[in-house]
Amino acid sequence: MIQAFIFDLDGVLTDTAEYHFLAWKQLATQLGIEFSRADNELLKGVDRMGSLELILQLGQKQLSVDEKLKLAEQKNTEYLKLVERMSPADLFPGVLPLFSSLKAAGVKTALASASKNAALVLQKLCIPALFDYVADSNLIKNGKPDPEIFLTCAQALGVAPERCIGVEDAPAGVTAIKAAGMYALGIGEPHALTQADLVIPAVSALDQPLLTKLLTL
Ligand code: BG6
Ligand code: MG
Q1: E-assigned strands of the chain?
Q2: Between the CA atoms of 131, 133, 135 and 141, what dihedral angle is there, to the nearest 10 degrees?
Q3: For ligand 1, is residue 115 a contact (CB within 6 Å)?
Q4: Residues of 67-94 as b/e, b for ≥16 C-beta within 10 angstroms?
Q5: What is Dmax (Cα atoms) for the chain?
Q6: Is the distance from the beta carbon of residue 20 to the nearest atom of ligand 1 less than 6 Å?
């Protein structure tokens, strides 16, 4: 029986994946680097400095550590401008009913986010209380695709990894869930999340019949 759900944040519970893209796109344009939505797929779930490195590789640019830190800071400032305008209306449809169903079924919930801004986004959405445990990249040494963040959540919840379902929109995140020995529920397109055990288009597709099926895995 499944005893815990561990959720990614950006792109799973709210559309901040788009805000990350817009902020990186602005930076890439400034640097004269072509950066498409397809390129952005590789950045999903990857931490801030890792994402910057990928963009610099795309543009075959080599910068000093100081320059990179400045650019990462600049991207974050741009991202925070977008987050500032967020409200509970930005929560994806179906999230609150899903958490009610999980609570009613006695399933524990955790957040596993690679973002250093996760706590702020949770506050903007007014959902910190939904989670039994929150792990973000301030707490974790090895980012996704390493399983550390998912294993940390499982341990904090007191649930064995094989009794956890991880929910992710990013290939790096799905890899992390599978490496943690959990069931991976992908959010997005099956062709982009080939390692996932099941892919649904959005959290809203996780209706009661599907949830009942997943809980008895
Ligand atoms: C992940 C996003 O959740 O957080 C990535 O999928 C992002 O796109 C990463 O780069 C780090 O976010 P932040 O807010 O710490 O820069
Ligand atoms: Mg994500």
Answers
A1: 4-7, 108-112, 133-135, 164-168, 183-187, 198-200
A2: -170
A3: yes
A4: ebeebbeebbebbeeebeebeeebbbee
A5: 53
A6: yes
Q: How many angstroms is it from 137 CA to the middle of ligand 2?
A: 13
Q: Is the CB of 116 under 6 A from ligand 1?
A: yes
pLDDT tens sequence across 103-151: 999 999 999 999 999 999 999 999 999 999 999 989 999 999 999 999 9
For every residue of 114-172, DSSP letters joined together read --TTHHHHHHHHT-GGG-SEEE-TTT-SS-TTSTHHHHHHHHHHT--GGGEEEEESSHH
Q: Ligand 1 test: best mutation among 48, 69, 81, 140, most atoms within 8 Å of CB?
A: 48
pLDDT category of residue 19 using cuts at 50, 70 and 90: very high
State the catalytic residues. Answer: 8, 10
Best probe residue, ligand 1, of 20, 24, 76, 84 (max atoms within 8 Å of C-beta): 20
Q: Count CB-CB contacts under 10 A for residue 39.
A: 17
Ligand at shortest distance from the CA of 149 = 1
Percent of residues, the chain, with pLDDT higher than 90: 99
Half-sphere exposure of 168 (CA within 13 A, CB side): 33
Q: Which residues contact 74 (CB under 8 A, 6 or more apart)?
A: 27
